[in-house]
Amino acid sequence: MYAPTSLSSPRSGPTSGDDGALTDFDGAGEILRAWGNGLRPDPDLTVSEWADRHRMLSGRASAEPGRYRTVRTPYMREIMDRLSPGDPTQRIVCMKAAQVGATEAGNNWIGFAIHQAPGPMLAVQPTVELAKRNSRQRIDPLIDESPDLRERVKPARSRDAGNTMLSKEFAGGILIMTGANSAVGLRSTPARYIFLDEVDAYPASADEEGDPATLAEARSGITSRRSTRRSAG
What we know:
Blueprint lengths: L27 H12 L7 H8 L1 E2 L8 E2 L9 H6 L8 E6 L5 H15 L4 E5 L2 H17 L2 H4 L12 E2 L2 E4 L2 E7 L3 H4 L4 E6 L15 H6 L2 E12 L2
Helix pairs in contact: 2-4, 4-5
Organism: Marivita lacus
Protein name: Phage terminase large subunit GpA ATPase domain-containing protein
């Protein structure tokens, strides 16, 4: 990598008596390092690799706070990695028991998308109230405890609609959270990614407008990555 240290040119000659004039000041090294880091592309990670590297679990959202470790729930690794941009899979269906770490795997996907592959995302809980609770107890800690996410998501401000309880705006995309009982929420925005959580608890119809999962998936294009999770008994 080349960093200029002089304004000299073959035609005009040096414009300063000191060839190091452009870097001969306090903080020059830090500026050049930051500039170099900005040119470096993000590493090509899978969702599970991203989680192990960047995800921190809060005491508000986890019984085991600290760095997220996929080895604690190794059966979720393939599911998460199938949600990575390099995988051709378009739809992931997970039939599972309760409390096996699937929701946190889905949250890892949300964090990965915000950081590595931004785009509009729709996350659907059975009801709007559950979506609000999930936002407070899981999504806010996900962002607050991960510096790479915290610097990308707009801070919550009373007059700024970019970051509310059910909407998190970030560079290149937005996360919309809603309930399967709200037809308005399900059709509010196009979505590149759709995360349907606890589908078995969805109502048969959203405000008498039809199947919530079908309404949500209609928000996506043919290149979307959709994660539908079903609970097993």
